[in-house]
Amino acid sequence: MRRPLAHREQGIFVAEGEKVVRRLLESRFRVVSVLLPEKWLLEYKPLLEARAEDISVFLADKKLLETLLGFSMFQGVLAVGRIPALPSLEDVLARSASPQFFAAVEGLTNAENLGALVRNCAAFGIQALIVGETSSSPFLRRAVRNSMGTVFEMPIVETPNLLQSLQYLHSRGVRCIAAHPHSQRRTLTEASFRGDCCILFGSEGYGISAAALEACDEAVEIPMAPGVDSLNVASASAVFLYEAVRQRGFR
Q1: Is pTM beyond 0.90 here?
Q2: Could you give the C-alpha distances from 101 to 34, 50, 79, 111, 125, in angstroms and in order?
Q3: What structural domains and CATH numbers belong to the chain?
Protein backbone atom coordinates (compact mmCIF):
# COMPACT_ATOMS: atom_id res chain seq x y z
CA MET A 1 0.00 0.00 0.00
CA ARG A 2 2.92 2.35 0.68
CA ARG A 3 5.21 1.25 -2.16
CA PRO A 4 3.71 2.44 -5.46
CA LEU A 5 7.08 2.49 -7.22
CA ALA A 6 7.73 -1.13 -6.25
CA HIS A 7 4.25 -2.03 -7.48
CA ARG A 8 5.00 -0.41 -10.83
CA GLU A 9 8.27 -2.31 -11.14
CA GLN A 10 6.39 -5.55 -10.49
CA GLY A 11 3.59 -4.64 -12.89
CA ILE A 12 0.89 -4.77 -10.22
CA PHE A 13 -1.65 -2.37 -8.72
CA VAL A 14 -3.94 -2.25 -5.69
CA ALA A 15 -7.72 -2.07 -6.06
CA GLU A 16 -9.57 -0.74 -3.02
CA GLY A 17 -13.26 -0.84 -2.13
CA GLU A 18 -16.13 -3.27 -2.67
CA LYS A 19 -17.27 -1.96 -6.06
CA VAL A 20 -13.78 -1.49 -7.45
CA VAL A 21 -12.67 -5.00 -6.44
CA ARG A 22 -15.88 -6.46 -7.85
CA ARG A 23 -15.28 -4.69 -11.17
CA LEU A 24 -11.70 -5.95 -11.20
CA LEU A 25 -12.92 -9.52 -10.77
CA GLU A 26 -15.41 -8.98 -13.60
CA SER A 27 -12.72 -7.56 -15.91
CA ARG A 28 -10.15 -9.11 -18.25
CA PHE A 29 -7.30 -8.05 -15.90
CA ARG A 30 -5.44 -10.83 -14.15
CA VAL A 31 -5.96 -10.91 -10.38
CA VAL A 32 -3.19 -11.97 -8.00
CA SER A 33 -4.88 -11.87 -4.61
CA VAL A 34 -7.84 -10.60 -2.61
CA LEU A 35 -7.87 -9.46 1.01
CA LEU A 36 -11.19 -9.00 2.77
CA PRO A 37 -13.17 -9.49 5.99
CA GLU A 38 -14.84 -12.90 6.22
CA LYS A 39 -18.35 -11.42 5.89
CA TRP A 40 -17.57 -10.48 2.26
CA LEU A 41 -16.37 -13.95 1.24
CA LEU A 42 -19.80 -15.30 0.26
CA GLU A 43 -20.47 -12.17 -1.81
CA TYR A 44 -17.28 -12.66 -3.82
CA LYS A 45 -17.22 -16.44 -4.01
CA PRO A 46 -19.08 -16.72 -7.37
CA LEU A 47 -16.78 -14.13 -8.95
CA LEU A 48 -13.66 -15.79 -7.54
CA GLU A 49 -14.74 -19.24 -8.73
CA ALA A 50 -15.50 -17.91 -12.22
CA ARG A 51 -11.91 -16.74 -12.70
CA ALA A 52 -9.53 -18.90 -14.74
CA GLU A 53 -6.41 -18.10 -12.70
CA ASP A 54 -5.60 -19.22 -9.15
CA ILE A 55 -6.21 -16.31 -6.77
CA SER A 56 -4.88 -16.17 -3.22
CA VAL A 57 -7.68 -15.11 -0.87
CA PHE A 58 -6.78 -13.74 2.56
CA LEU A 59 -9.33 -13.15 5.31
CA ALA A 60 -8.78 -10.67 8.09
CA ASP A 61 -10.87 -8.65 10.51
CA LYS A 62 -11.37 -5.04 9.42
CA LYS A 63 -9.74 -3.71 12.61
CA LEU A 64 -6.67 -5.84 11.97
CA LEU A 65 -6.48 -4.53 8.40
CA GLU A 66 -6.63 -0.95 9.64
CA THR A 67 -3.87 -1.69 12.17
CA LEU A 68 -1.67 -3.14 9.42
CA LEU A 69 -2.35 -0.31 6.98
CA GLY A 70 -2.28 2.56 9.45
CA PHE A 71 -5.47 4.24 8.28
CA SER A 72 -9.23 3.68 8.44
CA MET A 73 -10.95 1.60 5.75
CA PHE A 74 -14.65 1.89 5.02
CA GLN A 75 -15.16 -1.65 3.72
CA GLY A 76 -11.83 -3.41 4.20
CA VAL A 77 -11.83 -4.98 0.72
CA LEU A 78 -8.59 -4.97 -1.29
CA ALA A 79 -7.18 -6.81 -4.27
CA VAL A 80 -3.92 -6.94 -6.22
CA GLY A 81 -4.15 -7.06 -10.01
CA ARG A 82 -1.63 -7.15 -12.83
CA ILE A 83 -1.27 -4.26 -15.27
CA PRO A 84 -1.79 -5.74 -18.74
CA ALA A 85 0.27 -4.91 -21.80
CA LEU A 86 -1.04 -1.49 -22.77
CA PRO A 87 -1.85 -0.61 -26.40
CA SER A 88 0.26 1.71 -28.49
CA LEU A 89 -1.15 4.85 -30.06
CA GLU A 90 -1.02 3.10 -33.43
CA ASP A 91 -3.07 0.20 -32.02
CA VAL A 92 -5.70 2.57 -30.65
CA LEU A 93 -6.04 4.44 -33.93
CA ALA A 94 -6.42 1.18 -35.83
CA ARG A 95 -9.12 -0.13 -33.46
CA SER A 96 -11.16 3.03 -32.90
CA ALA A 97 -14.27 3.62 -34.98
CA SER A 98 -14.70 6.91 -36.81
CA PRO A 99 -15.24 9.66 -35.83
CA GLN A 100 -12.45 9.08 -33.34
CA PHE A 101 -12.64 10.65 -29.89
CA PHE A 102 -9.63 10.70 -27.56
CA ALA A 103 -8.40 12.54 -24.47
CA ALA A 104 -4.83 13.22 -23.34
CA VAL A 105 -3.25 14.49 -20.12
CA GLU A 106 -0.01 16.37 -19.48
CA GLY A 107 1.54 16.90 -16.04
CA LEU A 108 -1.45 15.56 -14.12
CA THR A 109 0.25 14.40 -10.91
CA ASN A 110 -2.71 14.15 -8.53
CA ALA A 111 -3.86 10.53 -8.58
CA GLU A 112 -7.39 11.33 -7.38
CA ASN A 113 -7.88 13.85 -10.18
CA LEU A 114 -6.50 11.44 -12.75
CA GLY A 115 -8.85 8.71 -11.54
CA ALA A 116 -11.82 11.07 -11.74
CA LEU A 117 -10.79 12.08 -15.24
CA VAL A 118 -10.66 8.40 -16.29
CA ARG A 119 -14.19 7.99 -14.94
CA ASN A 120 -15.36 11.05 -16.91
CA CYS A 121 -13.75 9.69 -20.06
CA ALA A 122 -15.58 6.40 -19.65
CA ALA A 123 -18.88 8.16 -18.98
CA PHE A 124 -18.68 10.29 -22.12
CA GLY A 125 -17.47 7.67 -24.58
CA ILE A 126 -13.77 8.50 -24.94
CA GLN A 127 -12.16 5.73 -27.01
CA ALA A 128 -8.72 5.98 -25.38
CA LEU A 129 -6.86 8.11 -22.84
CA ILE A 130 -3.29 9.13 -23.69
CA VAL A 131 -1.20 9.68 -20.55
CA GLY A 132 1.92 11.77 -20.98
CA GLU A 133 5.27 11.02 -19.38
CA THR A 134 4.89 13.84 -16.82
CA SER A 135 1.59 12.52 -15.45
CA SER A 136 0.92 10.03 -12.66
CA SER A 137 0.08 6.47 -13.54
CA PRO A 138 -3.66 5.74 -13.77
CA PHE A 139 -2.88 2.48 -11.94
CA LEU A 140 -1.91 4.12 -8.65
CA ARG A 141 -4.22 2.95 -5.85
CA ARG A 142 -5.99 6.30 -5.45
CA ALA A 143 -6.40 6.72 -9.20
CA VAL A 144 -7.91 3.23 -9.54
CA ARG A 145 -10.24 3.94 -6.61
CA ASN A 146 -11.41 7.31 -7.95
CA SER A 147 -11.98 5.82 -11.39
CA MET A 148 -14.46 3.44 -9.71
CA GLY A 149 -12.93 0.63 -11.74
CA THR A 150 -13.55 2.23 -15.15
CA VAL A 151 -9.78 2.08 -15.69
CA PHE A 152 -10.26 -1.66 -16.25
CA GLU A 153 -12.30 -0.94 -19.38
CA MET A 154 -10.74 2.29 -20.68
CA PRO A 155 -7.92 1.81 -23.24
CA ILE A 156 -4.87 3.59 -21.80
CA VAL A 157 -1.86 4.68 -23.85
CA GLU A 158 1.18 5.58 -21.73
CA THR A 159 3.35 7.55 -24.11
CA PRO A 160 7.04 8.26 -23.44
CA ASN A 161 6.75 11.50 -25.43
CA LEU A 162 3.44 13.33 -25.38
CA LEU A 163 4.52 15.98 -27.90
CA GLN A 164 5.41 13.35 -30.47
CA SER A 165 2.08 11.63 -29.82
CA LEU A 166 0.17 14.86 -30.42
CA GLN A 167 2.13 15.45 -33.63
CA TYR A 168 1.41 11.90 -34.75
CA LEU A 169 -2.32 12.37 -34.12
CA HIS A 170 -2.20 15.57 -36.15
CA SER A 171 -0.49 13.75 -39.03
CA ARG A 172 -3.31 11.19 -38.98
CA GLY A 173 -5.98 13.86 -39.28
CA VAL A 174 -6.96 13.96 -35.59
CA ARG A 175 -7.48 17.56 -34.39
CA CYS A 176 -5.82 18.22 -31.02
CA ILE A 177 -7.73 20.71 -28.87
CA ALA A 178 -6.11 22.13 -25.73
CA ALA A 179 -8.40 22.75 -22.74
CA HIS A 180 -6.64 25.92 -21.68
CA PRO A 181 -8.02 28.74 -19.51
CA HIS A 182 -7.56 32.33 -20.68
CA SER A 183 -6.74 31.15 -24.18
CA GLN A 184 -8.24 34.39 -25.54
CA ARG A 185 -9.08 32.50 -28.68
CA ARG A 186 -12.28 30.51 -28.53
CA THR A 187 -14.75 29.52 -25.85
CA LEU A 188 -16.10 26.03 -25.42
CA THR A 189 -19.38 26.52 -27.27
CA GLU A 190 -17.64 28.31 -30.16
CA ALA A 191 -15.30 25.38 -30.81
CA SER A 192 -16.16 22.35 -32.93
CA PHE A 193 -15.63 18.87 -31.51
CA ARG A 194 -17.13 17.04 -34.49
CA GLY A 195 -14.94 14.70 -36.45
CA ASP A 196 -11.75 13.03 -35.24
CA CYS A 197 -10.40 14.92 -32.22
CA CYS A 198 -8.34 14.63 -29.04
CA ILE A 199 -8.85 16.96 -26.07
CA LEU A 200 -5.71 17.71 -24.04
CA PHE A 201 -5.97 18.50 -20.31
CA GLY A 202 -3.11 19.96 -18.30
CA SER A 203 -1.77 20.00 -14.77
CA GLU A 204 -3.63 21.29 -11.73
CA GLY A 205 -1.23 24.15 -11.04
CA TYR A 206 0.35 25.15 -14.37
CA GLY A 207 -2.06 24.05 -17.06
CA ILE A 208 -0.67 22.98 -20.42
CA SER A 209 2.95 23.67 -21.33
CA ALA A 210 3.83 26.09 -24.12
CA ALA A 211 5.29 23.24 -26.18
CA ALA A 212 2.12 21.16 -25.89
CA LEU A 213 -0.03 24.18 -26.75
CA GLU A 214 2.08 24.70 -29.85
CA ALA A 215 1.50 21.05 -30.84
CA CYS A 216 -2.29 21.47 -30.62
CA ASP A 217 -4.48 22.80 -33.41
CA GLU A 218 -6.27 25.25 -31.12
CA ALA A 219 -6.83 26.24 -27.50
CA VAL A 220 -10.32 26.46 -26.03
CA GLU A 221 -11.51 27.79 -22.67
CA ILE A 222 -14.57 27.42 -20.46
CA PRO A 223 -16.21 30.83 -19.98
CA MET A 224 -16.28 31.69 -16.27
CA ALA A 225 -17.33 34.53 -14.03
CA PRO A 226 -14.76 37.27 -13.31
CA GLY A 227 -12.38 36.47 -10.47
CA VAL A 228 -12.31 32.71 -11.07
CA ASP A 229 -9.03 31.51 -12.58
CA SER A 230 -9.92 27.94 -13.49
CA LEU A 231 -11.75 24.76 -12.54
CA ASN A 232 -10.37 21.60 -11.00
CA VAL A 233 -9.24 19.38 -13.89
CA ALA A 234 -11.83 16.71 -13.04
CA SER A 235 -14.62 19.31 -13.21
CA ALA A 236 -13.19 20.94 -16.33
CA SER A 237 -12.92 17.61 -18.12
CA ALA A 238 -16.57 16.83 -17.37
CA VAL A 239 -17.64 20.18 -18.84
CA PHE A 240 -15.48 19.78 -21.95
CA LEU A 241 -16.46 16.18 -22.60
CA TYR A 242 -20.16 16.88 -22.15
CA GLU A 243 -20.06 19.71 -24.70
CA ALA A 244 -18.07 17.53 -27.08
CA VAL A 245 -20.53 14.62 -26.94
CA ARG A 246 -23.47 17.01 -27.18
CA GLN A 247 -22.08 18.27 -30.47
CA ARG A 248 -21.30 14.75 -31.64
CA GLY A 249 -24.86 13.56 -31.00
CA PHE A 250 -23.87 11.07 -28.31
CA ARG A 251 -26.73 9.05 -26.81
Answers
A1: yes
A2: 35, 34, 31, 23, 8
A3: 4-82 (3.30.1330.30), 89-248 (3.40.1280.10)
